[in-house]
Amino acid sequence: MDRQPRLRDRGVTIGALPAGSANAITDVAGVTVGHVTLSDGKVQTGVTAVRPHPGHAFRDKLPAAVHVVNGFGKSVGLMQLAELGTLETPVVLTNTLSVGTAATALVRHMLDATPEIGHSTGTVNPVVMECNDGAWLNDIRGLHVTEAHVLAALERTETAVAEGNVGAGTGMSCYGLAGGIGTSSRIVARGPRSYTVGALTLCNMGRMEDLRVDGRPVGRLVAGRIAAEKAERQAGEQGGREQGSIIVLLATDAPLDARQLRRLAVRGGAGIGRTGTHFGSGSGDVVLAFATAETVPHAMAEDPETVRRSLHEDAMDPLFRAAIEATEEAILNALLAARPTRGKQGRKRRSLAEFTDLVRG
């Protein structure tokens, strides 16, 4: 899929911090992303896999934390992640009813690479997260995602990140428009050091009238334009309850522990809110953050005490800003990258890219 112009290509810059070279979560060295897209008539779904580092995820875990903004979700693995503060597998994103399939595939992937799991050591904690693409575009009852699709996404990870309605984002809707995958990053300078914070979002939330782009009420303008064109109205575009969801992954190379990462994850919620959503009762809104600066070995050394680097709390503020800005921009990049889509029962979603003049202001 050809790359669509992103938010900055359209003359809009979010926030004050500089973006990384690719303006993507993969600006955090070692992070890679892969997609499998299933787009054929009523089948509008897929899988996105995120590898947090190039090493062995189970033997060399990463500090991690999760923040649940609103818990209307069916994710796997978050309870242990919150308890132990570590991530020990890639993260897989898919649709709500394919979480079980994805978890089984991720377990098989880890078993193939780790013969000691369930033999000479404990089991593995697969992390799978979801949004519901069946509310409008996808035949979610068809259970079209297979284990083979999940394994293929894991094998296809790379530093270039496709955005929009690809992978897990294929059938997602965002602010009454085509939604999906978006990404962005920020660079934070702290004295002689610099750190990167990257965000990847799976966007499936919001009411059109609430959408804001850099603080401007673009959603109301888009809704007005559609009404003026006498375009076909789509259920949920105007009025009604917000029942969508969003998953945010935050990666950083700053040396943060699990407690600090939870503080970072909370700020991801602020980035979501800046685009206009109010986290409706039926919305599953979850932020997972991990740090790549140092791994956590699975096997305990002879000396059980460890000394780990950790950023001073007074240095956290710029990282908080980075998480907010990158999350906000990632959501808007997803909206602009998504193509107009037709799914089950002939239902359609238009693209924000059709309203570029309104986005620019």
Automatic annotation (TrEMBL):
Secretion signal, residue range per the UniProt entry: none
Gene3D superfamilies membership: L-amino peptidase D-ALA esterase/amidase
GO molecular function, one term: aminopeptidase activity
InterPro entries named in the record: ArgJ-like_dom_sf (IPR016117), Peptidase_S58_DmpA (IPR005321)
Record SUPFAM superfamilies: DmpA/ArgJ-like
PANTHER family linked to this entry: BLR5678 PROTEIN (PTHR36512:SF3), D-AMINOPEPTIDASE (PTHR36512)
Family statement: Belongs to the peptidase S58 family.
Annotated protein name in UniProt: D-aminopeptidase
Source species: Thalassobaculum fulvum
